[in-house]
Write a structure and sequence with these properties.
The protein is built from 11 helices and 11 strands. By secondary structure, it is of the alpha/beta class. The structure holds 6-O-phosphono-beta-D-fructofuranose.
């Protein structure tokens, strides 16, 4: 398998750490004497030829920047055969033999489609949702979690002063990994995630009553966006108990900010590894990390895997709440 010219792109929702990852891809490619091109605006850039040559200087001073210098998008056109054929033509025209795609599972499905046309592809998990099953860590999760934690700590100050209940909605699409982690970190009164069956009376009202019985006068309810809307939950709390909860939807604030050290280092290692995999003759793989070690899995197998909230997190939460 020949690797002479690599294209790198970021696709789907941006995640802090994408820039350090692009930087690592570029620097590793150049280190091996391979040319590197940045494809802008995700898969759309490959369709329209929105592509720039990247050199050492192009990625200088990007390791500490949130967002993605390559821009990002969710491409509907690339999901069609016609869109994919256009992308393949661009690859052939520019001599791009390999594509490294940083993003979530939608991004990987795009990469898999491209590999069917003979383009080498490697996926790198980058999403604050942390919902890629074949890896226990996705670039952006740590920064997003810390951003949410910092915001909720601030909220707690005013909730405590006013002896209020707060309902905070955390991103994650259909997954509760971010909400669960953040909920544990902020000492939430209750955490609602889509992976766990929710009994509103038991999981929210009882927890508040118990906390109140034990002398607490403010309550922090963390809800994953996939488990319900914070507004609805606040309304239900108001109806069930004599509280008038305040709602905070953290929203896109969680996707911004300077990447943490953990995100920068993981992103750098993953970007490096993606290029090394190509050089080792591997294609159609996803870079993964488990317990600090880095590995890779087949794209199809990786996309078929399932993961859930760790039972330990559920157990720890049960012990920490309702006291
Ligand atoms: O996948 C990342 C994510 O931020 C999700 O947590 C969220 O549901 C979604 O993207 C929001 O998408 P958009 O940026 O299109 O509003």
């Amino acid at each position: 398998m020949s690797v002479k010219r690599i294209g790198v792109l970021t696709s789907g929702g941006d995640a802090p750490g994408m820039n350090p990852c692009v930087r690592a891809v570029v620097r590793t490619a150049l280190y091996h004497g391979i040319e590197c091109y940045g494809i802008r605006r995700g898969w759309n850039g490959l369709i329209t030829g929105d592509i720039i040559k990247l050199d050492e200087k192009s990625v200088s001073h990007t390791i500490n920047r949130g967002g993605t210098i390559l821009y990002t998008a969710r491409s509907k056109e690339f999901m069609t055969e016609e869109g994919q054929r256009k992308a393949v033509s661009t690859c052939k025209f520019l001599g791009l033999d390999s594509i490294i795609a940083i993003g979530g599972d939608g991004t990987f499905r795009g990469a898999r489609a491209l590999s069917k046309y003979g383009i080498n592809v490697i996926g790198i998990p980058g999403t604050i949702d942390n919902d890629i099953s074949c890896t226990n860590y996705c670039i952006g999760f740590d920064t997003a979690a810390n951003t949410a934690i910092e915001c909720i700590d601030k909220l707690r100050d005013t909730m405590q002063s006013h002896e209020r209940c707060s309902v905070v909605e955390v991103m994650g699409r259909n997954a509760g990994y971010l909400a669960m982690y953040v909920g544990l970190a902020v000492g939430a009164t209750a955490v609602l995630v889509p992976e766990e069956e929710i009994d509103f009376e038991r999981d929210v009202i009882e927890k508040i009553r118990q906390a109140r019985f034990n002398g607490f006068t403010h309550y922090m309810i963390v809800v994953a966006e996939g488990a319900g809307s914070a507004n609805d939950i606040a309304a239900k709390i108001k109806e069930a108990i004599d509280l008038d909860p305040r709602v905070t939807v953290l929203g896109h604030i969680q996707r911004g900010g300077v990447p943490t050290g953990r995100d920068r280092v993981n992103a750098t290692k993953m970007g490096y590894m993606a290029v090394e995999l190509l050089l080792a003759g591997k294609t159609n793989r996803i870079v993964c990390t488990h317990e600090g070690g880095f590995t890779d899995v087949d794209m199809d197998e990786g996309l078929d895997m399932k993961k859930g909230i760790q039972q330990m997190e559920v157990d720890v939460l049960a012990a920490m709440t309702g006291i």
